[in-house]
Amino acid sequence: MNLNLTGKTALVCGASRGLGYACAEALAKEGVSVLMVARREDVLQEAAERVMKVATHGAMVTYVAADITTEVGRVAVFSVQQDFDILVTNAGGPAPGDFRQWNKDTWMAAVDANMYTPIALIQTVIDGMAARGFGRIINITSGSVKAPIDVLGLSNGARSGLTGFVAGVARSDVAAKGVTINNLLPGLFDTDRLQSLTESAMQATGQSEEAIHTARKANIPVRRFGQAHEFGAMCAFLCSDLAGYITGQNILMDGGAYPGTF
Ligand code: NAD
Questions:
Q1: Are 214 and 170 in contact (CB under 8 A)?
Q2: Cα separation, 4 vs 30, whole angstroms
Q3: How many domains does the chain have?
Q4: Residue 98 backbone dihedrals phi, psi, to 5 degrees
Q5: Which atom, in ligand 1's list, is nearest to the CA of 228?
Q6: Which residues' Cβ are closer than 6 Å to ligand 1?
Q7: By residue range, what is the domain housing residue 195?
Q8: 31, 112, 121, 254: most buried by Cβ count inside 10 Å?
Q9: What share of the chain is helix, strand, coil (3-state, %, to 5)?
Q10: Residue 176 half-sphere exposure toward CB, CA atoms < 13 A
């Protein structure tokens, strides 16, 4: 399958580890020049070097250490480069907890990181994409949008807001100009985020890591956690020419865990 991505450019956020990293790697392997963003410069630099090793067709890998959920961070990124063919929005997920303990500041931080930040990024790049006749926007959201997770109320809420926004803008005038916008919804993927959620569950329940993982896998028909490279491969496909007829969709990658027919 020829994804025909050679020579394209991508901004990938939350790219030093996990799912964002896997998207950056999958795109670079297809010859896409990638600008990677995450907060810690040392970790990001090392990640960018690893991606550069697998890049093909002369693709370049650069990075900007910035907090993408802040205006300052976004200005730092766009001062390096403004036009991209591909945007992958991503940042850390909100902490789990009991909604009774969350105040307005807690909610505003979650909405800022998981709803407003992707919207602000889309706003910056989308008109350039439409003018050039090609654009791919992938938002890494969560299976919690489709099937809410009790302790992740901040994620359930903030990401649902983003999902509603994307449903509208994906079908706006940009659709006829070659710009697609889709959300990728991870179920349980074997990343640092999953590990930190496991640690929270260990503290809350007193159960061992093994017991928590065994119980979680028992609820997934494929009986395992997802691997980040599987996620990256789907991201690269959605960014390709071949996926030009897919827009405004929420694509769940959860090993069959969501039990509905649709
Ligand atoms: P992760 O914690 O392993 O990696 C997150 C990446 O984002 C890291 O590179 C981190 O440095 C970067 N990052 C975090 N906050 C940032 C910020 N403010 N600015 C710039 N970079 C930032 O997480 P992951 O497992 O790769 O998950 C990615 C997203 O998908 C998260 O929002 C997570 O909540 C969501 N998600 C993950 C899973 C899963 O099973 N892994 C399931 C559902 C949803």
A1: no
A2: 8
A3: 2
A4: -100, 125
A5: 26
A6: 13-20, 37-39, 67-69, 90-93, 140, 142-143, 186, 188-189, 191-194
A7: 190-225
A8: 121
A9: 50, 15, 35
A10: 2
Same domain as 122, residue 28: yes
51 and 106 in a single domain? The answer is yes
Tens-place pLDDT, residues 130-153: 999 999 999 999 999 999 999 999
Rg (CA), the chain: 18
Residues 222-249 have pLDDT tens digits of 999 999 999 999 999 999 999 999 999 9
**Residue 108 contacts residue 154 (beta carbons within 8 Å):** no
Specify the pTM: 0.97
Q: Do 120 and 203 share a domain, yes or no?
A: no
Task: Kindly report the protein residue whose alpha carbon is nearest to atom 11 of ligand 1.
Answer: 38
Residue nearest atom 12 of ligand 1, based on CA coordinates:
14
User: Taken in order 94, 122, 2, 244, is the CA torsion positive or negative?
Assistant: positive
Nearest CA-CA partner of 44 in 27, 61, 29: 61
Cα–Cα dist 111/102, whole Å: 13
The protein residue with its alpha carbon nearest to ligand 1, atom 43, reads: 142
Q: Which ligand 1 atom sits closest to the C-alpha of 21? A: 9
